[in-house]
Fold this sequence. Notes:
By secondary structure, this protein is α/β, with parallel strands linked by helices. The protein has helices at 19-30, 48-61, 77-86, 106-113, 129-138, 147-155, 193-198, 212-222, 248-259, and strands at 9-15, 37-43, 65-69, 92-97, 100-101, 118-121, 124-126, 188-192, 226-229, 236-238. The strands form two sheets. Strands 3-2-1-4-8-6-9 form a seven-stranded mixed β-sheet, sandwiched between helices. Strands 5-10-7 form a three-stranded mixed β-sheet.
Amino acid sequence: MRASDGFGIAVIVSTYDRPDALDAVLRSLAEQTYRRFEIVVADDGSGPETRELVASRAEEIGPRVRHVRQEDRGYRLAAIRNRAAAATEQPYLIFLDGDCLVRPDYVERHARLAEPGHLVHGSRVRLEPGLSRVAIERGPAIGRWSAARWLGEWLRGRVDRFAPLLRVPLGPLRRMSPRQWRGVKGCNLALWRSDFLAVNGFDEAFRGWGFEDNDLVVRLIRNGVRRKEGRCAVPVLHLWHESRPPDPDSRERFERRLRSNRVRAERGIDN
């Protein structure tokens, strides 16, 4: 696939008040080999520094960068992702977290994996605090590191995994778990916009941390979409941050969803 080939893609980058990480992510997206894509920053109520950053990067990258923001009224990731998806008309969506850097061929490889009726779940490699600072400073440069360099970082304990960074043509193994929702994370998830709209997008009833991405995938699978593995093809480099426990209300809501047969979000993109 040449860089000029393919179909339109929207990379939806969610963020909240971490402009240094977002800047590194935007710089890594600016170097993509695939050109038929736009960036939609899904901002869950960040302050003016983020607005200024996105405006600055948009001047450099061009009109392919958009900033969709909602007021800060607590954690509303599902809502801002829906608003960002509604703001684009591209047929294919890639959801990416604003603290996940990508390699130069990230969008192109996602385009290669795209298949009607399938979602693609990519891996993430977590960076420890020191390496995360290096990544923020160097931005897209670490996306060009060799496998040998990453092996060294893994042996030194600076990344949690090495295998996802290898390029392995898994072929039919990518379809081994077509109805498995477990393990899919919204920080690196791609699907057709038509499939997203068919289930009414993310459910905005999830307002605490966690489970809104699991809920989406469960409903997509119920609606006939199949899972396709993106491991060893489209990894992201996840910058370090303090972990937080899942919200109990969100966990309970998701457990209720598993016991139901609901396909469309209660409060989704068209509500």
